[in-house]
């Protein structure tokens, strides 16, 4: 793991938000057109995440023929997306909006089409806006061998990050959708 992903000595253990979803609760998509979790992307990952214990989440992603790199095998970038999306879902447990600053991925086993990738992610430390986290993706069941893993640094941002940087068409459509506004507001209110 690179030094950029090693929390500084003064970093704190993560604290589960009191209003975080209960363990086992489905987290749903944060945006219908998200390539990782949205239902509106026909070739997307349709990753389904659930709240875990502490500051953790679990997720499942089924590799389809849309996700190939080599014949019959998942593309490494798609697997990195699955790890990134699962790590991004940790924001629900802290109730902050955060984006990926750095993602370091190890690919340990090839992942064939048809495989269910069982993902688990947890926050390991928080320092200011910096959120340090780690994730695994297992095959053959939730306790199967680790096929992919990642260490990451997410950086907390405000909703303005998306409003200022996103394309106006999609931003306006999202802001006109009451469900989307409700999801964004859920993260904005911090103790
Ligand atoms: C509506 C609901 C939607 C909910 C939306 C949820 C979406 C989840 C989707 C899945 C996750 C994604 O793919 S998100 C999409 C992919 N990621 C992105 O597009 C992010 C693009 N990058 C950026 O916008 C920016 O670089 C930021 C926001 C990450 C940081 O910029 P900034 O806000 O100006 O802050 P900055 O001062 O640079 O950095 C803050 C601290 O983090 C450190 N830091 C920043 N980047 C790195 C890095 N790569 N490696 C090491 N350290 C880093 C800095 O050194 C600093 O440490 P110190 O000096 O404080 O010690």
UniProtKB/TrEMBL annotation:
GO process terms (BP): fatty acid metabolic process
Region of interest called Disordered, as start-end residue ranges on this chain: 1-23
Entry keyword annotation includes Disulfide bond: no
GO cellular component entries: cytoplasm; membrane
One Gene Ontology MF term: hydrolase activity
Keyword field: Apoptosis, Cell membrane, Cell projection, Cytoplasm, Fatty acid metabolism, Hydrolase, Lipid metabolism, Membrane, Transit peptide
Protein name: Acyl-coenzyme A thioesterase THEM4
Source organism per UniProt: Streptomyces thermolilacinus SPC6
EC main group: hydrolase
Catalytic activity of the protein: octanoyl-CoA + H2O = octanoate + CoA + H(+); dodecanoyl-CoA + H2O = dodecanoate + CoA + H(+); tetradecanoyl-CoA + H2O = tetradecanoate + CoA + H(+); decanoyl-CoA + H2O = decanoate + CoA + H(+)
CDD domains in the record: PaaI_thioesterase
SUPFAM superfamilies: Thioesterase/thiol ester dehydrase-isomerase
Lineage of the organism: Bacteria, Bacillati, Actinomycetota, Actinomycetes, Kitasatosporales
InterPro entries reported in the protein's UniProt record: HotDog_dom_sf, THEM4/THEM5_acyl-CoA_thioest, Thioestr_dom
Domain (Thioesterase): residue spans on this chain: 72-134
Localization per Swiss-Prot or TrEMBL: Cell projection, Ruffle membrane; Cytoplasm; Membrane
Any matching Pfam family: 4HBT
EC number: 3.1.2.2
Topology within the bilayer: Peripheral membrane protein
Similarity remark: Belongs to the THEM4/THEM5 thioesterase family.
């Amino acid at each position: 793991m690179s030094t950029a992903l090693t929390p500084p000595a003064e970093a704190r253990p993560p604290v589960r938000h009191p209003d975080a979803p209960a363990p086992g609760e489905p987290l749903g998509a944060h945006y219908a057109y998200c390539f990782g979790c949205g239902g509106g992307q026909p070739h997307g990952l349709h990753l389904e995440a659930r709240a875990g214990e502490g500051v953790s989440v679990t997720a499942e992603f089924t590799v389809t023929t849309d996700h190939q790199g080599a014949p019959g095998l998942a593309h490494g970038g798609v697997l990195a997306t699955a790890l990134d999306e699962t790590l991004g879902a940790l924001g629900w447990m802290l109730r902050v909006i955060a984006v990926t600053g750095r993602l370091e991925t190890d690919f340990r086993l090839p992942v064939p089409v048809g495989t269910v990738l069982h993902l688990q992610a947890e926050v390991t430390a928080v320092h200011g806006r910096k959120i340090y986290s780690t994730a695994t993706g297992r095959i053959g069941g939730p306790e199967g061998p680790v096929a992919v893993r990642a260490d990451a640094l997410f950086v907390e941002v405000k909703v303005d990050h998306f409003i200022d940087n996103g394309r106006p068409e999609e931003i306006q459509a999202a802001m006109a959708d009451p469900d989307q506004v409700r999801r964004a507001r859920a993260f904005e209110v911090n103790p």
